[in-house]
Amino acid sequence: MTQAVLNNQALAQLELPTYLTQQSSDTAHYEIDSTDDVFGKLYRVWGDQRKINFLGTFYQDRQELWVSQRSCTCERYQ
């Protein structure tokens, strides 16, 4: 291997912990819980960078497609 390849690998290994810490702190602002509904599992998404807010729900329909719905709206997205 050339010195440039080894330097790139070493640099990537040094930057990995910082990258993982940043990614985990970004995703820590969201929580997902579930509740049993008449039609199956209903998943609720909570989160915001300032405080915990209800963002919406998602579930699987009979054709096993995921359906999402934002809070405070009647629109559904598949």
Short account of what is shown:
With 78 residues, the protein is of the alpha+beta class. It contains one helix and four strands.
What's the alpha carbon Rg, rounded to whole Å?
Answer: 20 Å
End-to-end Cα distance, whole Å, is 48 Å
Topology as H/E string?
HEEEE
Q: Averaged pLDDT, please?
A: 78
Strand content: 35-45%
Oligomer: single chain
Q: Structural class of the helix and strand makeup?
A: alpha+beta
The number of helical elements comes to 1
- Global outline: elongated
Q: Helical percent range?
A: 25-40%
Instruction: Give the biggest sheet.
Output: 4 strands, antiparallel
Q: Detail the poorly predicted runs.
A: none
The counted number of beta strands is 4
Task: Tell me what you see in this structure.
- This protein is an alpha+beta fold and 78 residues long.
- Helix content is 32%, strand content 36%.
- Strand 2 and strand 3 (54-60) form a beta hairpin.
- The longest helix is centred in the first third of the chain and has 25 residues, at 3-27.
- It is elongated.
